Amino acid sequence: MTEPAVIALAAAPRPALDLTLPPAPVREILERAFDEDAPGGDITSQLLIPADARATAVLNARVPGVLSGATVFRDAMQLVDPNTQVELLVADGKAFDAGTHLARVSGTARSVLMAERVALNLVQRMSAIATKTAEYVALAEGTRARITDTRKTTPGLRILERFAVRCGGGANHRYSLSDAVLAKDNHLAVMTGGDPAKLTELLLAAKAQLGHTTHFEVEVDRMDQIEPVLAAGVDTIMLDNFTVPELKDGVALVAGRARVEASGNVNLGTVGAIAATGVDVISVGALTHTVAALDLGLDVELTAR
């Protein structure tokens, strides 16, 4: 299905979600990135740029979008040189137009040039995720559906990518395998040995072993699995790869006995119809695993010795 043109991002709702990042894991990510990108320093700048040269550069938006990673951009610049001055002109979670100045950087030219690529890589990817999320959120506006991410994130960057989803107005699913129970099709196949009659009994036995605060979700891919799963008293039932009519029927069948999540076949062309079925959650792997970096650039305004 052809996806619609990009919507007006400024119209996307912005729920009150936490738009802060813990400093320790961000620093760890940045340290790994610079160890990879400049293990022995930036030999090009050391060769060509005098040590006392200074530069001022502007982070420019070449396309419209929603910003995420402004503070990460700043931290990358200042990890290379704590004396680098970074003025953030647009806050994380804010929509911007093409041509907007998002941040201004001033410092030694060598430091700015060494930090440039790592800082840009992260803010470009995070802003792409935020922008895509805002498009999905706007298309679900007026329904009860919450747009969430999945665990389909870049290894080592999950905390940044999930922050970017929040910047776009979306919400986060479970952070890791350690946070909640989510029994998917392969779990159920192994558990039941192919005998669906065992499903309720086995889920009840599993639930009895959980603490009372642990969320229990089960994925189903057929309508006839819904009642046996609901009989186990699960918290959320995921309807995977259901058609829109099937989702409507599934929501009616659940009838408030559990939270309903839709997953699979979700794109910008289908999300509005999926949201209109009455589901509570729509999980979208594409928010993080198929985005292309947003076109942001760092342009030097002034270099002086």
**Helix segment tally:** 11
**Considering DSSP H and I runs of 4 or more, what fraction of the residues is helical?**
25-40%
Order of helices and strands: HHEEHEEEHEHEHHEHEHEHEHE
Q: Which outline best applies? A: elongated
Strand content: 15-25%
Count of distinct strands: 12
Termini Cα gap: 56 Å
Uncertain segments: 1-6, 10-14
The CATH homologous superfamily of the largest domain is termed Aldolase class I
What labels describe this entry?
single chain; 305 residues; alpha/beta; Aldehyde Oxidoreductase, domain 3; TIM Barrel; six-stranded parallel β-sheet; four-stranded antiparallel β-sheet; disordered N terminus; Nicotinate_pribotase-like_C; EC 2.4.2.19; transferase; nicotinate-nucleotide diphosphorylase (carboxylating)
